[in-house]
Structures are given as structure tokens and as C-alpha cells.
Give the backbone structure.
Amino acid sequence: MNDLPLFIAESIRIVDESLDKLVPSAQTEPQLLHEAIRWSLFAGGKRFRPILVFAVGRTFEAAPERLVRTASAVEMIHTYSLIHDDLPSMDNDDLRRGRETCHKKFGEATAILAGDVLETLAFQAVAEDERLTAEMRIGLIAELARAAGTPFGMVAGQHLDLEAEGKQMSIEAINNIHGLKTGALIAACGKAGVTIGGGTETDVRAISDYASRLGLLFQITDDLLDVTQTTESLGKTAQKDLAANKATYPSIYGIEGTADLAKALYNEAIACLDPIHKPTELLIQVARFILERCS
């Protein structure tokens, strides 16, 4: 029986309740800043990154209450990156998660600060997690910082992505961009789940390999959706990457070739789970969910 939809719904409920407590209310001064944060954070995102933390954590029998602050932290980091990515100086987008982007609704300066706050609140959430040991908290903070920053993380990938606009890029270069921009934080989510769950070194390596491929798979399916779906179904501007002449997988492989690449990467991700002596059906379902997603 496929219990993934129920698992996803429950994970979203848990993380949204946590985020509501971790983020200042819209009535807290400065109100406009906190309204902007909540506008972006509670706009109905897919919550894939926290879902992955919960899925890996469940595989290694970690209680949800030990996972929830870290899961909340990665969603705050992700949302901050979207706020900044949409800015006029970056991708200059007007629509995100089906509503106006943060800077269109609240102004560019407030949007920048909203992103800044979400990033700092993410690390505070993990640092103050009393359900985890101090040593584990330090390790998780280091891992998230590495995955979100540079030279091996999201910000490095975002910069390379901007530099690549309008240029002919090799597949190796595109893999590197998206392995950093999208894949690094997703890989960190997998590692966080297995770490909190007390997995062995073999488990950590296997989950890291699985989650790294999941990160690239997520980006490949994102590229496919950008050229095959509508703005209404995506909740963001369709074909924006094409208009900006960005480095994407369909620009090299075409739509059919990119779909084949996604299937191959899915199979690689599943194979990475072989060394794990735990039930991995949920993780297989998560990978298939990414492969088959429509938004």
C-alpha cells in the first residue's frame, strides 16, 4: 500500500506548525517585515526538503519531534533562497508559489531583509533544539551552512547559474551548477535525517549518494516542467528559464532525452539504497514522487 500521500500531508502539517511557532507573528514589530516573511513561507510550497528529512529520519527510526526543527530549518533556508532568487537583480520574477513574489508585494528592501531573517532563524532553530545533543547540533549547523553557502553549496550554484546565462554550457558544467544550486541542500536533508536517526557511516554514505542524485533528479524534473507546464499549474512563471537563456537539461538533451535522463537518475538513486539494512520503501516512493511530479 502506498502511504506516501498520507506521509507527505502529515509531514507538511508538522513542519508548518513548527514554522508558525519559530517565526515571529505578523503582529510582532516590525510588522511589515514579519508579514513579508510569512507571505513567502506560508504560500503553500511543496515542502519537499523537510519531507525528505522526515522520510530518511523515519527510515532510521528517529522520532518526528527530533527531526522537526531541522526540517523547519531547511525549509527556511530554501524559502530565503527563493525570495532572493526572485529579486530584480537575480531572476526578476513576479510570481512564486502561486502568488506575488515577496519583493513585488512588500518592496525590494523588505524582501531582502525577509530572506536574511529566514536564513538566520534557520540556524537558530537547530542551535536551540534541546532534543538533540550539542555535538549533533553543531554537526547539523555545519552541514547546513556548507550546503547553503560557497564553494560547495547553494549560493555558489546560484552565482554560477547567473554567470551561465546566454552561454553554451557543457553537461558537466550544468551538472555542477545544479548539483550545487539544488542538489547540495537536498543532500544535506538526507544526511540530517540519517544523522539524527543514528545511522552508521555506511548508512550516511548511502543516503548521501541517494540524496545527491535526488537533488539532480529534482532539478531535471523542474527543467522539464518549466517547458511542458503552464504558469497556472506551476505557481511560477513558466518557460522563464528559456526566456532567460539559462543552462538547462532540455536545452542540451531535448524534452524526450531529458525524460530518459530523469529515469536513469531515478534508478541510480534507488540503487544507492542497497547497502542500507532498513526498510527503504518510503525512500523509493519519495524518489518516484519526484520523477513523476507534475508541479
Remarks:
- The chain has a mean pLDDT of 93.
- The two ends are 24 Å apart (CA to CA).
- Strands lie at 95-96, 99-100.
- Residues 201-228 form the longest helix (28 residues).
